[in-house]
Amino acid sequence: MKLHEITSTLESIAPKIYQESYDNSGLIVGDLSMEVTGAIICLDSTEDVVDEAIRKGANLVIAHHPIVFKGLKTFTGKNYVERTVMKAIKNDIALYAIHTNLDNVRRGVNEKIADKLGLKNKRILSAKRGFLNKLVFFCPDKDASRVKEAIFSAGGGTISDYDNCSYSSGGVGTFKPMRNANPVEGSLGELSTVNESRIEVLVKNSVLEEVIHALKSTHPYEEVAHEVYSIKNEDQELGSGMIGELESSASLDEFLTYVSFTFNTGVIKYTPFKKEIKKVAVCGGSGSFLLKNAIAAKADVFITSDFKYHEFFDAEGEISIFDIGHFESEQFTIDLIKEFLIDKFPKFAPHLTEINTNPVKYF
Fold first, then answer.
1. Please, which residues bridge with residue 30 across strands?
2. Nearest to 273 by CA among 248, 254, 245, 259
3. Which of 179, 241, 340, 349 has its CA at a distance of 20 to 30 angstroms from the CA of residue 109?
4. From CA 320, how far away is CA 276, in angstroms rounded?
5. Helix 333-344 vs helix 3-13: angle between axes, to the nearest 10 degrees?
6. Chain-wide mean pLDDT for the chain?
7. Backbone angles phi, psi at 289, to 5 degrees
8. In sequence order, which residues have a C-beta less than 8 Å from that of residue 200 and are 6 or more positions away?
9. Ordered domains of the chain (ranges, CATH)
10. How far is CA 15 from CA 34, 188, 207, in A?
């Protein structure tokens, strides 16, 4: 199996276009045309994980966190980042990261956390804007179904849990083929009229290029009249965090015990809360920026990590903050990545790392 087959699969689930501006997801070390002999999945690419890959005969490490966030100007082994990259290159091991793009998709890190907690009625906590487009095109009525089917197959017309979504309105199109035209219908120099449909389809940024290609490839006209509008609607399948509800309410102490057991935490830093807990917001990794969203959504608890001391005061008694640790909040991500790969490549057997890469220990 080629490396590009694996990366293409992961990026079809979590397109790189969805990563945050500061991130560095994607292939960091390696050749997309290389043959993959095995893969290690981890949260962090470290020297120990690369050594583990060498021992197991694997030449690919798939991590959640990119080993390189900023440009490297020297390779002298002065820190763990340089040493890890140098060791990977020396041993022909590819390093790949799938980070905030996997955080931001519906089927990603936060839904995995929500599922571990058994949350129901899940939705994105803070949906993103600016990633949706409206494609409008005009097509002869007799060809409309075929062209729409091609667009749907390319990923257009998907709205949350619905696909093949479109709107059509009828009308009459006119055109006059000029001297150098090669019309499918009509004659050079003569005005033609055709019964046409105006068709509107919602298209995500991540598949826009493929959808436009499908439109032009299947449309009967030599020149395809179409328009693309960027729209400001929220994409309910894309964004930060997730919120859902417990099957039944729990007291604060009961829920602390449940979360501690589920995430095998060394410690939970939390703020007091007097009411029963029913609605739960989550965000893997550093999620303090979503506290206002969690409060606005009437969550009783917000589970995340990396809150600073004074940020705990912002709970104001309206919500209980559970800071369970960065590693702990994202630990199930490696299972998620493995599930994606096995679903696509049933005969491929990626390994979950046996190395605990959590840099934080508890005494």
1. none
2. 254
3. 349
4. 11
5. 120
6. 95
7. -65, -15
8. 134, 135, 136, 166, 167, 168
9. 3-103+332-352 (3.40.1390.30), 109-127+240-324 (3.40.1390.30), 131-231 (3.30.70.120)
10. 21, 45, 9
Q: How far apart are CA 166 and CA 205, in angstroms?
A: 17
Give the span between the Cα atoms of 202 and 167, in whole angstroms.
Answer: 10
Report the C-alpha gap between 7 and 255 in whole angstroms.
38
Of 186, 175, 188, the C-alpha closest to 224 is 175
Dihedral of the alpha carbons of 92, 93, 94, 96, in degrees to the nearest 10: -160
Q: What is the DSSP letter of 348?
A: -
Strands, DSSP E only, in the chain?
26-29, 39-44, 60-65, 94-97, 120-129, 132-140, 167-175, 192-204, 226-231, 234-250, 269-270, 277-286, 301-305, 320-323, 351-352
Tokens 């009525």 correspond to: 141
The predicted model scores a pTM of 0.89
Amino acid at 16: K
Confidence (pLDDT) at 26: 97
Whether 340 and 13 have beta carbons less than 8 Å apart is answered as: yes
pLDDT digits (tens, 9 = 90+) for 232-264: 999 999 999 999 999 999 999 999 999 999 999
Is the CB of residue 24 less than 8 Å from the CB of residue 52?
Answer: no
Question: How many CA atoms, within 13 angstroms, populate the side-chain half-sphere of residue 87?
Answer: 21
In angstroms, the CA 53 to CA 118 distance is 33
Taking a C-beta distance cutoff of 8 angstroms, is the pair 95, 210 a contact? no
Residue 211 is inside which H or E element, if any?
Answer: helix 208-218
320-323: strand order across its sheet: 120-129, 234-250, 277-286, 301-305, 320-323, 269-270
Query: Which helix (H) or strand (E) covers residue 326, if one does?
Result: helix 326-330
Contact 61, 82 (CB under 8 A): no
CB 288: neighbour CB atoms within 10 A? 18
- For residue range 296-330, list pLDDT tens digits in order: 999 999 999 999 999 999 999 999 999 999 999 99
- For residue 59, what is the DSSP state? -
